[in-house]
Amino acid sequence: MNINDNLHLKQFLQNNHNSVFSTFRQNGLSQLSIVTVGLWRNGVAFSTPQATAKTVNLRRDPRCSVLISADNWYPFVVLEGNAEVIDYKTAGQNKLGAYLREVYISGAGKDHPNWNEFDQVMSIEKRVVVYIEPDRFYGPLISIPSGFVTNL
């Protein structure tokens, strides 16, 4: 599925970046992480240190889900599919650096104030890009009805 083919979904993802990411632990239980995602290529992406539980889990089993929500948790959308872990071995150091910058801009909605510092931190933390091009999505991509209280 190409997110760019669904204008409503694409607009939602351009404006919302808070998310909960789910992978599968070795024992079959889910492992959840809070991440900031950005629209990237035909899906969404975020960066994470290569040694995190989510990265280890994805290298073993690429199936994942990511719930992306508005700031008040509604509306939201859930994307499901297989994630690709992009590291310096698969992309090369120069391309990985460029990808990390692109993913930052997409998730933050702006340039980093100091790209040299950013690059150093990405290198020290051994960051990778996690990219999800979803197979399917679901959730209420609608505005909150007038008078609806979300913090019940």
Q: Topology, pairings included?
A:
Blueprint: H1 7-15, E1 18-24, E2 30-36, E3 38-40, E4 43-49, H2 53-60, E5 63-69, E6 76-86, H3 88-91, H4 93-108, H5 115-124, E7 127-132, E8 136-138
Antiparallel strand pairs: 1-2, 1-5, 3-4, 4-7, 5-6, 6-7, 6-8
CATH superfamily: Electron Transport, Fmn-binding Protein, Chain A
Structural class: alpha+beta
What kind of oligomer do you see?
Answer: single chain
Overall mean pLDDT stands at: 91
**Share of helix among residues?**
25-40%
As residue ranges, the low-confidence spans are 147-152
**Rg value:** 16 Å
What do you see in this structure?
- The N and C termini lie far apart (35 Å).
- The longest helix has 16 residues, at 93-108.
- Strands 1, 2, 3, 4, 5, 6, 7 and 8 form an eight-stranded antiparallel sheet that branches.
- 31% of the residues lie in helices and 34% in strands.
- It has 152 residues and is α+β, with helices and mostly antiparallel strands.
- The chain has a single domain (3-138), classed as Electron Transport, Fmn-binding Protein, Chain A (Pnp Oxidase, Chain A, Roll).
- The chain is built from five helices and eight strands, in the order αββββαββαααββ.
- It is globular.
TL;DR?
The protein is α+β, with helices and mostly antiparallel strands.
